[in-house]
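[job 4471] stage=fold_predict status=RUNNING
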Amino acid sequence: MGELIKLVRNFLSCYPNRKTICSQDNICKKGHADTYSNGIQTGLCVAYNSTYKTCQVRAWCPVESKSTPEPAILASAENFTVLIKNTIHFAAFGFTRKNILPEYNVTCKYNKVDAPRCPIFRLGDILSEAGESFSQVAILGGIVGIEINWKCDLDPWAFSCHPQYSFRRLDDKAVDDSLYPGLSFRFAKHYKGSDQKEWRTLIKAYGIRFDIQVYGTGGKFQFLELVIFIGSYLSYFGLATVLLDLLISQYYKCCCSPNSGQKYYDEQKYKEIQGPNILRSCVDLKFVSFVDQNDIIMVDKKLRKSLQKTKGHHIKREKLTTSELFTRMVHPTAIDIEPSPPSKKYLNKASDSPGWCQCLKCHKEKELENQLCCRSIKGECITDSDMFKKLVLDKHTLVYILQYNDPLLKTHSLDNEKLVNCAEQQYIRWRFGSNTDIMVFSKVPSCCKFEIRNLLDSNIQETSVDAKALSSSDASQKPLLKHQR
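[job 4471] inference complete, writing structure tokens
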């Protein structure tokens, strides 16, 4: 479709405008071609009409017209048909498919309802599916897109792989006329006439271009891909907890009491473990407890100076109720135990205490790990407390504990070393708790060691509870048991 124009090269004056109006020849530039002109200036200023003079140009005459023939020259092309051959290949699955299906023959024509997979298309139907009129588009031309979309399920039990066709116009039909809407191109044939003048035949062709666009997706079940997908999907659940923690912390910052809500959330989510789970092969590991501090101190490095002056990590002490404390340390009894007075031999002398001692009752030690006091700063020694004397130093209490653990143990078979070990274990349970990992590496202060070793200087005596004491003990416990029921 198009129009044919025969032109001859000749001289003509330009249409008057700001750049072409002139009064004399020197204003016109020979060889200059203006964008809005139809040719090349000759350098002469000639009369356009009785009012204006314009620069003369050498151009093809007559000047090209922008008008197009209506109706379109080849209106019958609306009934032309086109066969589209398309092949899609899924390299990952080694599968190839053509759009020409065996159930369709050469006589079929595409119809959205009756034959949606026929590859033969009528041009008028293509424009109609795109929402356009063939007779209108054919005048100025246009660009129409034919989309072939493959959605393939390649699993044997649910195989499906067929093309779906859709149509839409790609060019903008609402542009200004000065921008030459539609689709057109020009080509010319040049020759000379009998008068030796140069002629040309200019053909302005208007047409409809069809752009075929192919899209395809194909899938097939693969167990490995399923496992990877599930793993990546589950990872988002881990991010969800982090996001919730962030949102909760940000929310409680805006409340009137920001610490209470966040603290309650942390207590419900996290469980506090009293002390770490320690391997027993850690040679350099030591635990220290000072009477003037609430935390246990963990020292996990080789000592360069006294254990008293070595800094470590603070661990929260295990919290026990009063009943739990006596259940773990001393079995409940109504016997009134009188503490044994400390020996005068090991009474502290301030002048003999080493520099690392803070209670003025420690003795000199050669090994660095034994250079440990019961306090971190100067003050009263723990050995002067009533609880230390009752739980750690009293022989009757120690014998009672040993017999509680071994009911068949006879007092005459006890030696001083057993009492000392029992006293040190009593001190460790009292000050460090019942965590076995911590108890193994716990250190007893020098002042406490010497008070405990004082037991070796006394001869062990058989400890027996007479019937009168037992009866009084039972009598004192009965109301307690009755109350517990």
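[job 4471] summary: Confidence is low (pLDDT under 50) at residues 320-326, 328-350, 459-485.
[job 4471] exit 0
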